[in-house]
Amino acid sequence: SAVISQKPSRDICQRGTSLTIQCQVDSQVTMMFWYRQQPGQSLTLIATANQGSEATYESGFVIDKFPISRPNLTFSTLTVSNMSPEDSSIYLCSVGGWTGELFFGEGSRLTVL
Amino acid sequence: GIQVEQSPPDLILQEGANSTLRCNFSDSVNNLQWFHQNPWGQLINLFYIPSGTKQNGRLSATTVATERYSLLYISSSQTTDSGVYFCAVERLKVEYGNKLVFGAGTILRVKS
Fold first, then answer.
1. Which among A7, A46, A49, B47 counts the fewest CB atoms within 10 Å?
2. Among the partner residues B31, B98, B103, nearest to A33 by beta-carbon distance
3. DSSP-derived secondary structure for A71-92
4. CATH for B4-111 (3.10.580.10, 2.60.120.10, 3.20.20.10, 2.60.40.10)
5. Topology of A9-112 in CATH?
6. Do B33 and A102 touch (CB under 8 A)?
7. A91 in contact with B, Cβ within 8 Å
8. pLDDT in tens, B63-109
9. Which of B43, B50, B99 comes nearest A104 by C-beta?
10. Min CA distance, B11 vs chain A (Å)?
């Protein structure tokens, strides 16, 4: 299984600001995935990040609000832009293993005031 | 899109009891996984089980793909088993991917 590190682990942010979450993997992976988990809810896929191409966003998520970078095969960032209290969530980075399994980082817990 | 339903939504067990969690899905899948989210939010991959049966210690899982359901068995439950159990699936398709759709989860509380 891959080791996935996320930063920050948690943060408290002011309304209207932006925050960038980093995800580092200990091995090269083709696809990285960003999920959101709102309080008391399940996980929802935000986007798939492929190296060398633009991220593919799921319905309800747009690039202006959640810009994603994927500069190489071991790293990705997700920015939550112009935050509002509704953006308070856990944001999780994940990668797929060779056998199809999905592994998650520890998550970044954001609280927007 | 594919629908994933988990039951029960909540479960309270006395330590040492056994339990069965269920996951129903609405379409053929090529990927099904069970996860445990601990109280600190960490998601742990329990089983990758698109079909068949697997066991890992006190946990086991069975997926009957033709009938579109999966079961997670927890035996001799411990307080550390508390948390949320998620079932996640990916619809059967030609191209490779890991775009999992998650169920709503089962909240398990094990009392000592």
1. A7
2. B98
3. EETTEEEEEE-S--GGG-EEEE
4. 2.60.40.10
5. Immunoglobulin-like (2.60.40)
6. yes
7. no
8. 999 999 999 999 999 999 999 999 999 876 645 455 789 999 999 99
9. B43
10. 16
